[in-house]
Structure formats: structure tokens, C-alpha cells
Amino acid sequence: MKKILLAVCLVAVGVAFAAGTAKKAKLTPEERAARRAAAEREEYLATGGELKQPGTQLGEIYYVNCQRRADAQWIADSAAAFEKVLHVGIVVTNGQFRIVKTQVVGSACVFIVDDPALPTSLCAPEDKWAMVNVSKLYDARPPFFRARVKKEIARAFAQLCGALSSQFKGSLMGPVVKAADLDQFEDDRLPIDVIARFPRYLEAYGVKPYRLSTYDVAVQEGWAPAPTNDVQQAVKERVEKWMAERAAKKSAR
């Protein structure tokens, strides 16, 4: 009986120790960021970084900034986020918006305007454009205003690409009947079922995703540009050496 009690006690102590260790092992946001940065650095040293393969992209979506109330960087951040997810060319430029005879830029475009006389947003997929009106999104608190602008741009882009709703409750494509409704959403990310609809519409607009690969693969396939730093130079030399050794082995057979 004593042996059994001793075993139970040891197990309990072990569980408590493990729980305590797990609790201590919980990383802070800064520690997680540091680990992520270290992993990204290791990957860069191994591959030489990511590249767009020339000639694989077709068409471009334009974000046309027609206002000055919202920071241009917010628009650029939204464009960069969508390009990262979709691997399509998204260009941010300045321009003008006319509700009558709207002039589309690129394959399709999202206009960002500041006009109290216009609605909060408009979408005309048949004419290949959407519009976001920051005057109806304004909030004196900059973080709220920034978030609203980025969320409404994401919604407009989604609507331009045929995604008017999502099966996921609480997603950004849920009911929004006033600007303040946008504040309930955590960020401007879209659910997977919405993003999954984009390729079909983008193809109809004449937009084809570019191929994203790594520098070492580009060297193997013969389309890598000249190295831009010591890391890429080292990767290039290593891959070329490996290719030469492989070719020599094949010719010796």
C-alpha cells in the first residue's frame, strides 16, 4: 500500500512539475517575435529569399487614392496584405474618381475617395471597379479611423471579386449597416471561404497570379537574377556546385 501511495505521490509531483514548466515556458509576444525573426533569418540564409518569377504575372489591380484625409500608408498596407495572400500584382497610385463615366485603371480598381455626397462604398464588378468613401468612415480616434478604412477597403475588394458574404459567423463580410459596425471586427482579415472565390473573378478581370519561389530554386531553374548580397552569392555558389557535381555523376554512368 505504501508503494502505491508513493507511486501516486511521485506521479502527482511529476504532473505538477510538468505543469509548472509548461507555464514557465509560455512565451511573451516579444519572445515569439524574436523566435519568428530567427526562423525567418535561418530560412533566408538557406534559400536566399523569395522572388517573383518574371513573366508569370498577368494583369494588375489598382488602388487609386483620390483623397488626403486617410493616410496613404494605410492604403499601401492593405494592398500589400492582399498581394501577399493572393500573389497578384496590386499597384497603389493617385488619381481622381468620377461617379459618371468612371475611368478604370489597370485590370480592375478600388478607388479611395473623400466625398460627403457619396455613399460609404460602391461596387460595380461589371465595370471592374469599387469605391470606398473615407468621409463616411471618419473617427476622431486615429486607430479607429485607420482600422475602419482598412476594413472597408478589404470589404470592397472582396465585393469586387464576387464575395458578398461568408459562411463564418462574425467575419468581416457580415452585416455592416453603419460605420461603427466595423469596430466590432478584430482586424481587416477575410475568411478563407471569401478568399477562395477571388481567383475566378480575378481571372475574369484578366489577372493571373505570379509564381513565387526562392532564390535557390531560381538558380536551379536558370532564371535567377544576379545576386544582390553576400547571402544570395553564397546560395548561388552552393547550388551551382551541387548542380555541377550532379551533372558529373550522371555523365560518369
Strand content: 5-15%
What's the architecture of one domain in CATH terms?
3-Layer(aba) Sandwich
CATH superfamily of one domain: Collagenase (Catalytic Domain)
Give the CATH class of one domain.
Alpha Beta
- Roughly what percent helix? 40-55%
**What oligomeric state do the depicted chains represent?**
single chain
- Main sheet properties: 5 strands, mixed
Strands, count: 7
Structural class: alpha/beta
The number of helical elements comes to 8
What letter string, H or E per element, gives the SSE order? HHEEHEEEEHHHEHH
Could you list the spans in which at least 5 consecutive residues all have pLDDT below 50?
A: 1-11
Alpha-carbon distance between the two ends = 71 Å
- Described by the principal axes of the CA atoms, the overall outline is elongated
Rg to the nearest angstrom?
Answer: 26 Å
